């Protein structure tokens, strides 16, 4: 797993439930939330306007880790 990809649980003020945030470096790539009773990924644009370029193994691994951390707590 790419060491620049971090998964952490967060409690945003605009959400009723905990979320899992996936950061790449110091930018948020995606948030996994459970609002509305279903798990939903919300992807964010890079600040510099460039597209995200993430290896498939790293991206899928990070998404699965986020899901695991959020639903197994």
What can you tell me about this protein's structure?
With 73 residues, this protein is of the alpha+beta class. The chain has one domain (5-71). It has one helix and four strands, in the order ββββα. The chain has one helix spanning 56-71, and strands at 5-10, 19-24, 27-33, 40-43.
Protein traits:
73 residues, alpha+beta, four-stranded antiparallel beta sheet, 1 helix
Helix content: 10-25%
**What class would the helix/strand composition place it in?**
alpha+beta
Beta fraction: 25-35%
> What is the rounded distance between the termini?
22 Å
SSE pattern, N- to C-terminal: EEEEH
Mean pLDDT: 94
Taking pLDDT < 50 over at least 5 consecutive residues as the criterion, the unreliable ranges are none
The radius of gyration over CA amounts to 12 Å
Which word captures the global form? globular
Domains, number: 1
Per DSSP, the total helix count is 1
Largest sheet: 4 strands, antiparallel
Strand order of the largest sheet: 1-2-3-4
Count of individual beta strands: 4
What's this, in brief?
The chain has 73 residues and is α+β, with helices and mostly antiparallel strands. Helix content is 22%, strand content 32%.
How do the helices and strands line up, and which of them pair or pack?
Layout: E1 5-10, E2 19-24, E3 27-33, E4 40-43, H1 56-71
Antiparallel strand pairs: 1-2, 2-3, 3-4
């Amino acid at each position: 797993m790419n060491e620049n990809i971090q998964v952490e649980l967060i409690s945003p003020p605009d959400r009723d439930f905990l979320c899992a945030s996936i950061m790449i470096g110091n930018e948020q790539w995606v948030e996994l939330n459970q609002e509305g009773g279903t798990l939903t990924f919300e992807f964010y644009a890079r600040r510099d306007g460039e597209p995200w370029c993430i290896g498939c193994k790293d991206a899928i691994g990070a998404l699965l880790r986020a899901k695991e951390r959020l639903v197994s707590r």
